[in-house]
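User: structure tokens for TetR/AcrR family transcriptional regulator, please.
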Amino acid sequence: MAPTKSPDSSRRSDRSRRAIYDAALALVGEVGYPRTTVEGIAARAGVGKQTIYRWWPSKAAVLMEAFLDLADRAAEEAAAQPGGVARGLPDTGDLAADLKLVLRATVDELNDPVLDGPTRALTAEGIVDAKLGAEFIGKLLDPQLALYVTRLRAAQEAGQLRADADPRIALELLIGPLFHRWLLRTLPLTHAYADEVVDYALGGLGVSR
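Assistant: Done. Predicted tokens:
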């Protein structure tokens, strides 16, 4: 008789984690963060709630990890598309074109209904939960902002930005308006708007002629 192969526990754990991620994101999108519970996530994922508590201390931790995983997958899928933006900001030598490409991709992410609910939930909860807010910034926002800083410093070295410009403030001029418009939902968030933001920001940051 052929030996019986024992189940692969690591693969089973990966499937369970993926089911929990998907359940958490789906529930937050459907009923909002306050009404999402560990019990609801467990039922949706087809696992026991003790499985969730074995891996995460709270629903906030579940959602954080699920969202980070979703963001990673979205970035990989975007990079795989023709003309997609890979991790890191492009550096073609044309700063305006590079920034417009990245901000357009950001607009697409913010307008994605799959990402919208979880992003708003984490943003809102991070305001009242300082620990969650710090984790959200440290794990998600800061790594992305660092990519802008790197690209803007390269532009400074190439003489495309004022040498005394603070890259951190400069990036806030670029991404701040997008998040402001996304947060308030009063005006459409479009590629054309992203292009104008770049033009306005660089108009104030460019080297004087």
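User: Anything notable?

Assistant: The chain has nine helices and no strands.
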